[in-house]
Amino acid sequence: MIRAYKFLMRPTLGQAIALGEMVRDHCSLYNGALQERRDAYRHVSKTTVRYGQQSAQLKEIRALDPERQGRWSFSSQQATLRRLDKAFAAFFRRIKAGDKPGYPRFRGVGRFDTVDFPKDGDGCRWDSTPHAPVTRVRLQGVGHVRVHQHRAVVGKVKTVSVKREGKRWYVVLTAELPEPEPLPATGSVVGIDLGIANFLTTSNGEHVANPRHGRKAAKRLEAAQQALSRCKRGSKRRRKAVQKVAALHRKVRRQRLDHAHRTALDLVREHDFIAHEDLKIRNMSAAPAPKPDPGRPGAFLPNGAVAKAGLNKSINDAGWGVFLTILHAKAESAGREVIAVDPRNTSRRCPQCGHVAKENRPTQEKFHCTACDHHAHADTVGALNVLRAGLVRRKATA
Questions:
Q1: Would you kindly state where each structural domain of the chain is located, as residue ranges?
Q2: Helix, strand or coil for residue 353?
Q3: pTM
Q4: pLDDT tens-digit map of 160-212
Q5: 147, 7 in Cβ contact below 8 A?
Q6: What b-and-e string marks burial along 282-320, b requiring 16 or more CB atoms within 10 Å of the CB?
Q7: Which ranges of the chain have pLDDT less than 70?
Q8: By the 8 A CB rule, do 155 and 174 touch?
Q9: β-strands 189-194, 273-277: how paired?
């Protein structure tokens, strides 16, 4: 099992400058390798340049430019070239699948924020001394950088990555763990229904409030965006405004992640089996298709795009996809079982008699069965149906 750890680094002023130069030089290597692939395909009879050929040129590149490329780890530069190769592999995969291809783009310095070290000890060294007063990570060309290690790293460190987020620097470790010890069994099973009015509702009738972090920060974000739009491009004032907008977005993202971690941890600790809806979030948050007006060429009929845009904003603000990813990861680590079920009619089926009808849910919160007169909260009914479907699926799989 592989687990990732993310720690805040506290570099000195000189180390921060060196980290910025390292990212900048790796970005230059990435863009140069991309330019070579483009030129080879366009001008040399559609020749394809692959990772092996570019990796073989690294020795010459480092010798020709020792000030920019020769001072950094060879393996980290190979990882940057491998990153470009993965971008092209994804590009060709999307072409075969019929999706929008998205050709790999050149990266600006502000959009290239991560440097990977494929192996601990090759260009980097994580200080794994237990109970040390100060934790440090050694990076070739930078030195020993202090790390704020807020929890212990369990397992053998495999890879190390350096990531920049605004003015902060982080080190991301991946460690290989033995088989995790499962949490003690509780004998409890639960179904959850994700929503917008409530973030989730359990089959036990418990509601977890939707924090709406994006909505709460909307006014500050709007003011920061307006201030940014009034700044002259290329000015120092505009750079500061960009940093302020990015900092607000990062704060919302961290708040959303924190809420997802806390909610998922509570579910995993209290229940042995968790069932949830298999939501297609990308389809749910897609914009409605335009409706051409047959009577007026070039005109369109109302399609509810404004109302759908508000719903899409609320769906994205809730962060269902991030929460489900975290829930599956924590359940695997704790030895719990998580199953996704078909979400169709989960909020319209009566848990008492099984009657399915649109009229069973007259409002967002109320459920009133038209066949047996059963009353309940609509989200609780959905969670009950999700739990029953999950138990049936688990039994069928076993």
A1: 2-176, 189-397
A2: coil
A3: 0.86
A4: 999 999 999 999 999 998 877 889 999 999 999 999 999 999 999 999 999 99
A5: yes
A6: eeebeeeeeeeeeeeeeeeeeeeeeeeeeebebbebbbb
A7: 130-132, 398
A8: no
A9: parallel
